Each structure stands twice: as structure tokens, then as C-alpha cells.
Amino acid sequence: MVTRETDNPGVIALPPLIFLVAILVGALIHWIRPLPIPVATPWRWVAGAVIAACVAFAVWARTTFTRAGTNVNPNLPSLVIVESGPFRFTRNPMYLAMTVALIALAFATRVGWYLVLLVPVFALIHWGVVRREERYLSEKFGAPYDAYRQRVRRYF
Q: Are the C-beta atoms of residues 111 and 37 closer than 8 Å to each other?
């Protein structure tokens, strides 16, 4: 049962911070021990476009949360179930956008360490954030959230 003191999912860290740390760590490791990805320049431009699309998708998701009147920060209480905008297609559009952007960043910058770090980053996001949020939302909203979960995929 969700009480006033536990009215948040108890995520291990803010998701953007997890991705930012991965980017900084990847860049540092690459500086010490390069792991270049051979990517032709035209594909690097495509990767840059993918990053821009991911930013737009994440902004759309954040705006949808704000317009619905709920908190974007997972350390604050969820006030409503958001099922519109990008949440019609995926329950986690912001995390999906950040994940795809990290992959695209690897190709745009030719830094292979970003792909290596993708595995622990995804594990942290999945078990330390998403699964905790799902448990919290199911406890807080019950059947309406569970029905949404049945209709809309977790990631894609």
C-alpha cells in the first residue's frame, strides 16, 4: 500500500543522471583506452539526426506529463496515469529516447564504450527504475494502471 511517506517508486537514481554518468564514464574510458567504431561520415550525420529525434520524442513525453498534471521527477508522487501522446505507444518514452540516443551517440562520436556501457545502463534503468515504477504505479492506481500495462508495451 502506498502511504504519504512512500508515495514514490524509490528509484535508485534519476534516469537522466544514469545516462549522463554513462556518457562521462564512456568518454573518460575512451580517452584512456580508445575503442573506436568505424562509422562513415554520412552515417554519423544520420546518428546525429536520430539523437535530435530522440530529444524531440523525450520533450513530447515530458510535455505530455506536464499537461496531464503529474510529476516528471520519479522521486515525487505520480498524480495520474498518462496514456496520451507518446504514452500510447510505449509506457517509457523518455527512457526509450535516452537509450536510443545513447546508441546513436556511440555511432555519431565513434565511441565504442557507449555501446559497452549500454548493458549496465539498461540493467539499471530496467531493474532500478522501470520495475520499481511499475510496482509503485500498480499499488497506487490498481486496475486502471494494470489495464494500461496490458494495452501498451513497456519499451517498444
A: yes
